[in-house]
Write a structure and sequence with these properties.
The chain has about 190 residues and is an alpha+beta fold. The protein has one domain: Peptide deformylase (Peptide Deformylase). The chain has 5 helices and 9 strands, in the order E-H-E-E-H-E-E-E-E-E-H-H-H-E. The strands form 3 sheets. A 5-stranded antiparallel beta sheet has the order 2-3-4-7-8. The radius of gyration is 16 Å and the shape is globular. Bound molecules: ligand GNR and nickel (II) ion. The site of ligand GNR has 17 residues, from strand 2, strand 5 and helix 3.
Length: about 190
């Protein structure tokens, strides 16, 4: 297990359609363990493999992490408590989505410091393989539905800014460049440019 550097946009790996996993072996499980550790360390509620420069259809999600005190730097015990309900998705496919939309203020570990409202289906059903390679189906709503759709987008080379107008997208990418200049320590610790 390892904490892996997170790729910041724009980078070609974030625009590529990721490859399906054909065999779930120990190498894949080690990658998933490292992705989960990287997600909790960031911290984030989801992480897709392209964000750690692996162009494969794997994502990890935990939307049940506790709220923390932002003023104190987290210690190892605090980071360990973020692991509440880890979920592993391999080759996920949305098999149903509701007509009814939902708007959520989204962020992305590949676009640190940037947030925007994104409209997506409110509920989805997703089919995927789990950590043990077992076929699973999940019906999701709320933050889980938003996060799963955000992560599946990553597997298809799509970022949340691709759901915005080109004006807002360009503005966000310019603000990201500024954020990167102003936060060199955060970038050095957790990201790759
Ligand atoms: O940590 C994250 N928070 C978040 C908030 C609203 C909608 C989606 C997300 S996912 C994001 C982590 C990330 O970039 N996953 O790809
Ligand atoms: Ni993201």
């Amino acid at each position: 297990m390892a904490i892996l550097p997170i790729q910041i946009a724009p980078h070609p790996v974030l625009k590529r359609v990721a490859d399906p996993v054909d065999k779930i072996d120990d190498k894949i499980r080690t990658l998933m363990d490292s992705m989960l550790e990287t997600m909790y360390n960031a911290p984030g509620i989801g992480l897709a493999a392209p964000q750690i420069r692996e162009s494969v259809r794997i994502m990890v999600v935990d939307v049940d992490q506790p709220r923390e005190d932002d003023d104190v730097p987290p210690d190892a015990a605090t980071i360990a408590k973020r692991r509440v309900k880890p979920r592993f998705f391999i080759n996920p496919e949305i098999i149903w989505s509701s007509e009814e939309p939902n708007v959520y203020e989204e962020g992305c570990l590949s676009l640190p410091g940037q947030y925007a409202e994104v409209e997506r289906p409110k509920k989805i059903r997703v089919k995927y393989l789990d950590y043990d390679g077992q076929l699973q189906e999940l019906e999701a709503s709320g933050l889980l539905a938003t996060c799963v759709q955000h992560e599946i987008d990553h597997l298809n080379g799509i970022l949340f800014i691709d759901h915005l107008s080109s004006l807002k997208r360009d503005m966000t990418l310019r603000k990201l460049k500024k954020w990167v200049k102003e936060n060199p320590d955060e970038i050095a610790e957790k990201h790759i440019l």
